[in-house]
Amino acid sequence: MVAFAANSVLNRLALADGAIGPSGFASIRLVSGALALALMVWVRNGASSSSQFGGITGPLSLVLYIIGFSFAYVTLEAGVGALILFGGVQITMFAGAILSSERLPPTRWLGAGVAFAGLVYLLWPGGAAAPEILGAILMTAAALGWGIYSLHGRKAKDPLAATAVNFILAVPLGLLPLLVFPDVLPITFWGVVLAVLSGVVTSGLGYALWYTVLPRLDASIAAVAQLTVPIIALAGGMVFLGEALTLRFLIAAVLVLGGIAISIRR
């Protein structure tokens, strides 16, 4: 969850500073992640590396998430974007849990509702206009992609290799926006640094770790756990950027963490 929160911060920082455009960021993120993961698998396994191809679901859902995420933050505010993303992810993964006949006790529904209410309380823009429609659609698509990617990851037998294959196969599609919708902004050195950090560390390694954890979690628990990401991101802003600690944040953090505690309680 810390990796996911850092990933959001890197993406928003790159676009907000004008260091790079959404197409360039998404493409560099995918390519750098694919190269780093392929190298790690090769170092670990050498010539005996076996294929971990698990179909096209993983690569396609990864591309949908990364591209939708990058372009959505061009027009959406950070809080609204996070609310749409993690609300959509929760709905997608709960739907997947129901379709797979996963048992969902009443406490899990209650906990999910409390945690999501805390996120809405924290991120809903008081008195603000409705979010820009295209940005909202793109972030909803990103949420669908990430939810499917997470559900698919529960089947991974070799998380590092499976993540590497997903990234490598996603690269050709991930480069299309750079060709079809080239950025107006030039690609700067700082933009490349942020995109590579996002691709190698918070995406590549973070997603491999996520694929390691997922088989041990129910889909609904994994969905609820991800509601901590905006809380962690805002807490990081307080620690590293000197942002103020507010009562609104404390109340929301208690609701989100309390809701997760209710969901995972046996």
Automatic annotation (TrEMBL):
Q: Which UniProt keywords apply?
A: Membrane, Transmembrane, Transmembrane helix
Transmembrane helix as UniProt keyword: yes
- Please indicate if the UniProt record lists Transmembrane as a keyword: yes
Principal location: membrane
The places in or outside the cell where this protein is found are: Membrane
Q: Where are the transmembrane segments?
A: 26-43, 55-74, 80-100, 107-124, 130-149, 161-181, 187-209, 221-241, 247-264
**Pfam families according to UniProt:** EamA
Q: Which InterPro entries match?
A: AA-Vitamin_Transporters, EamA_dom, EmrE-like
> Domain named EamA: which ranges?
134-263
How the protein sits in the membrane? Multi-pass membrane protein
Identification of the protein by name = DMT family transporter
